[in-house]
Amino acid sequence: MSPEYEPLLLRHFLRILLYATMLLPFAITPAWSQAQATAPFEVQNSKNQRWYPVEARRIYTSACDLVARSIRPDNPPHLEPRFLLVLGAEENEFVHDGRVNEIRLKSWNPETFAEGVVIGAIRDVLHADDLAKIAHQSVVLADSTLDVRELRER
């Protein structure tokens, strides 16, 4: 390459670099939006409560992992409960209404959020029939055992 073309080539390279730098935010935005759309939970924060999405995602992942390993240590299932996180709610609660699951928090609280994720993960593993069966078995088992004090009363 002849020396007279080097400044031209350098200018051309710098122009491409400048355009690439200017276009980078536009390239990243759709990927970020898509990642948000495929997150395992949605957020409703109409009162603009302060919360920490990165912390929430870490808690979500570790809670699901711990529940999965508690249920089946040798071959943990992949748990990914879907729910709506509602910030600024009147009460801290987990709501399950048909196919809709919500974790409602008065304000961001990592412990309460983790409890809600655990409940959601357990509901992923134990469906309504399983929960009803376990509840029934609990009552049957409780009725089939007696405390010594109860024997004295009879």
Key phrases:
single chain, 154 residues, alpha/beta, 2 domains, 4-stranded mixed β-sheet, elongated
3D architecture notes:
The chain has 154 residues and is an alpha/beta fold. It folds into 2 domains: 1-38; 41-153, no CATH class. It has 5 helices and 4 strands. It has helices at residues 6-37, 53-71, 110-125, 128-143, 148-153, and strands spanning 41-44, 83-87, 93-97, 100-105. It has a 4-stranded mixed beta sheet, covered by helices on one side. Helix 2 (53-71) links the parallel strand 1 (41-44) and strand 2 (83-87). Helix 2 crosses helix 3 (110-125). 13% of the residues are buried.
Determine the N-to-C terminus distance. 107 Å
Q: What is the N-to-C order of secondary-structure elements (H for helix, E for strand)?
A: HEHEEEHHH
Question: In terms of per-residue confidence, which ranges show pLDDT below 50 for 5 or more consecutive residues?
Answer: 26-37
Overall helicity: 55-70%
Topology of this protein?
Blueprint: H1 6-37, E1 41-44, H2 53-71, E2 83-87, E3 93-97, E4 100-105, H3 110-125, H4 128-143, H5 148-153
Parallel strand pairs: 1-2, 2-4
Antiparallel strand pairs: 3-4
Helix pairs in contact: 2-3
Quick summary of this structure?
It contains 5 helices and 4 strands.
